[in-house]
C-alpha cells in the first residue's frame, strides 16, 4: 500500500509574505535498515516487580541527562532574544466557561532522583499505561494498579536504556507500543503481542548511532520517529504491518528532509500522531519550529514536507518539501541562570529555577479527521514579555480540506489567567470527536508550586482563545531545590477510545517530593440533558420519506459557520456525530443516513457549546 505523509515544521519567523523560503525539493535514495535485535518476551505480569527504592547508579539518569543535553545548553547560553517585545497573541479575554473537576486523579509512578521523570501515558479500552524514566505501570480505568506493577523499563525492552520513554495505544490494531532509546547506539521499542498490556511483547532494536529525544507517532501503516538525530532533519518510518505480526525481518526506511535548517538548537522535529477512529490515510505531519532570533531564519512560519512510502518497494520512498505557512511573531527564548541554560522559571521560596523546555515542541502533536476537514494541533513555550522570564504557551491549529494544502486556522498564546507573574509551560493538547480542544499544563511562579491544570475551548468559540476557565488537577506543595533544574521533559494528553470524549492527562508536579507524576481524566464535552429545550417547529425541521434517510434543517441567526450535530439512542449513546455548515440561505442542513442502525427512537441534537436544540426521530 502506498501512503503519503506530510512532515510539518513550525518555523517561527517574522510575519510577512508567505512565499516559501526554500524551493521544494525531492529527496530519494532511502536507506533500508533491518533490526539488529528481535525477541519475544515472557508475559510481563509474571516478571518481578520493580524496586523503586533501590536505584543503582546505572539506573539513575541524572548524570547522563546532563551530558546528552550539553549541546543544547551551549546553544542556549549564547542564543539571542527575539525582536518580539510582547507576545502579540497573549490572551487577555476572560475565560467565560467553567471547567469540570477531574473525573479521576491519582499519582502515577513516583521515583526519587529522576530529573526529569519524562512521564508519558496512553489509554485503551480497559487500561492506562504510564511510563517514566526507568519504570512503568499499568492501571485499570478506576485507577487500580495491576498486580506485579510497576516494572523496570528493561522489562520488556531490555538492553542498556537511556530514557525518553514513549507509550502509544495503536487503536486500529488494539495493541500497545512502548519505547526507550540507547544513547548513541540504537532505537528500541516493543509492541504487545495481544491487546493485553501486561502480556508478551515483540521487541525490536534498530541501529542509529546518533540519536536523542525520539518522538514516535502512528500513521497509516507506519510507525514514524523523529528526534535530535544526525544529520539534522533525519527521520525513520517502520513497517507497521510486519511489526504487528512479530516479523523479525520488519524493515525501516530513513531519509533526511530537504531544506531542514540544521544547527538550530535541539533539532528535534516531532511526528504528529493520528488520533481517533479509522486508519489514517494520506498525509501525516511532523512539527518543529524556528525562531527569528536564530541564524538563517527570517520569517515565522510552519513548514510541510511530503513523505511517500510503498512498503512493497520501500527503497522507492521519497520526501518532498518544504512548504511554509506564516505564524505570528513570538520569542521562544527564556534566559537561564548562572550558566545553567535550563534554570528558567521561578518557584516559591527558593532561588532555584526550573526548565521551561525552551526551543522544543511539546509532546504530543495530533492530527484529526472531522470529515469536513482535518486538524493538526501542537504547542510550544514562549516568553510573554521579552526578558520577563514568564512563560506562556503558543498553540496552533492547522487545517486542510479535500486533500489540499495545510493552512493556518487559528493560533493563540495562553498565559496565566490570574494576571500574576506565574508561568504556564509543558503543554499537552488533544481534541475530542466534537472538536473540543483541551490543553493540560504545568503552572509555576513566585506564588505557585509546580502544579497541574487544564483549559480548553469549543469549536464555536472565538478563534485563538482558550475559553475554559483554568481548572486545577493537582496542587503542588514543594519546590525543586536540589541543584538540578530539569523538569518534566514530557507531558501527554490523549482521548479515550471508548467514548472519544474523555481526556487522559499525565505530567510532573511537585508534591511531597518534586518528582511526582499524576494521571487524571476529565471531559469538556457537554452530555445530553433532559433539561434541553425543544426547538420550535418552524426553526428546526426533520423530514423523511422512508424513516431511514432524514433531512435535518435548522434556520438560525447564529453567527457560527458550523454547528455540531449528534444523534443519540435511548440509552444516551451517541451513534452519529458531524459538523453542520450554514448554507447561503442561512439554513444549517445535514442528511442523516440511519441505514444500519437499529429500529427505534433516537434524539437528534444540533447546536454549539452554549445552546442545543433537540428533536426525536423514529427509525423503522
From TrEMBL:
Q: Where is the Secretion system C-terminal sorting domain?
A: 552-619
Q: Which Pfam families match?
A: Por_Secre_tail
Tell me the InterPro entries matching this sequence.
Secre_tail
Q: Give UniProt keywords alphabetically.
A: Signal
The signal peptide, as residue positions, is 1-23
UniProt cross-references to NCBIfam families, sorted A to Z: Por_Secre_tail
| Annotated protein name in UniProt | Secretion system C-terminal sorting domain-containing protein
**Source species, please?**
Aureitalea marina
